[in-house]
Amino acid sequence: MAYTLAESFRANFLGNSPTWYKLTIVGFLVVNPVLVQIDPFLAGWVLVIEFIFTLAMALKCYPLQPGGLLAVEGIILGLATPEMVFVEAEHNFPVIMLLMFMVAGIYFLREMLLFTFTKILIGVRSKILLSFMFSLTAAFLSAFLDALTVTAVIITVAIGFYGVYHKVASGKQFDVSHDASTDEEIVELHREDLERFRAFLRSLMMHGAVGTALGGVTTLVGEPQNLLIAEVMDWEFVEFFKRMAHISMPVLAVGLLTCVSLEYFQIFGYGTKLGPKVREVLEAYDHQMAQQRTTQENMAIAVQAGVAVALMVVLGFHLAEPGVVGLMVIVLATALNGITEEHRIGHAFEEALPFTALLVVFFAIVAVIGEQGLFSPVIDWVMMYDGKMQQALFYIANGVLSMISDNVFVATVYITEVAEIHEAGNLTREQFDALAVAINTGTNIPSVATPNGQAAFLFLLTSALAPLIRLSYGRMVIMAVPYTITMSITGLAALWYLG
């Protein structure tokens, strides 16, 4: 069938996305210039909402393209400048470097991770205990490593599990190459079990992702904004932990209790257990791999384990930036395991680089927020209060705004504003310390409500795993609701009564 030029353009625009979605994006692009003429402040907020829409529809179209179009238009319309986007990217360069190298580094540890977590999955038959272990382990690792690294680990593990069962469900042997992104070859007998397995993995991923937030708030290396706040406040590792403990520890306890309760009552999409057929497949896979594993392959797993230990030691003592450590992991894991071909190394970057590009597009939206002062009215309103009420409002405002934009940006804006007020002599050091605690906990805890609230959540949403296990933006929000409620209320109560 021959297309006219106009028809060809329509077909090519955003590829295989639904027609209604394409028309919606076009509508956004048409209305934005009109809104800029009416009120740039309003246009800025509309642009933020439009970008969040592209994130919510990530399973319809990867957000980089539609979100990128909106960001480019925003810059052309003067809502921000290219220089401001570069400044935001430069400011977040450690996060960009982490994504580029750490996620790729985790790729080269996948055999060891799959080996270890397969043993855990098979050995722990209680779904409640397994979920608790996932959440607690993610929290512990995030406190000493960082949330994105831990999220990359659990994504790698889940993709491995999913690939193994999907291959068998398609009627193939373990050692046969297979495309796990399509269900066309799934045997009818396995379809129901596959759907249950997807629900099982979704719940584990959400428990793990929330776990990264539970641990990330506790230490200055847990989240990028923690380090920024610690530098402004001149807090060392132990002091930072102590200042957050009266909020972070109760929230950790309540978060873990919420995890157990969700699995016990089987609500909000949780509680699905590992089906007996799936367990049989994973047990058979583990047994076959153990029988076929050569001495060389065993050595490769041992080397990967050694590299993983080195990774935790270097990050735990903050001996280098996470991105630099990721590069070290790539060099060690490939050099010591004989991976020297360029095309084999290139595969490791396929997961990380699209998200890195999306994150830079997100920084363009953040530049619009900063240039148009979208959060300024909130800051001015909160500063009208004092004492406990001011701290509570800072906590709430930071949480709500982090759900809308990004917790790193919100923390940067607020801590900078508060530092300037303190330097001007309008805040005592004690008040300054209390507000810094409110800012850190506010940006870390309530932000679990949406995928765009935390980089780790957004990474999970836009990963190769999300479409495989049918983890959409809306489903993530729904599954995060109970955590958001219990953790946010606990954090606010602890701030008010224990501070």
How do you describe this structure in short?
Among the domains are: 16-79, no CATH class; 93-352, no CATH class.
Low-pLDDT residue spans: none
- Compute the number of strand runs: 0
Average of per-residue pLDDT values: 88
Question: What is the straight-line distance between the termini?
Answer: 70 Å
Share of helical residues: over 70%
Task: Determine the number of helices (DSSP H or I, runs of at least 4 residues).
Answer: 24
Give the DSSP E fraction (strand runs of 2 or more residues).
Answer: under 5%
User: Main beta sheet, described?
Assistant: none
Radius of gyration: 23 Å
Q: How does the helix and strand content classify structurally?
A: mainly alpha
Order of helices and strands: HHHHHHHHHHHHHHHHHHHHHHHH
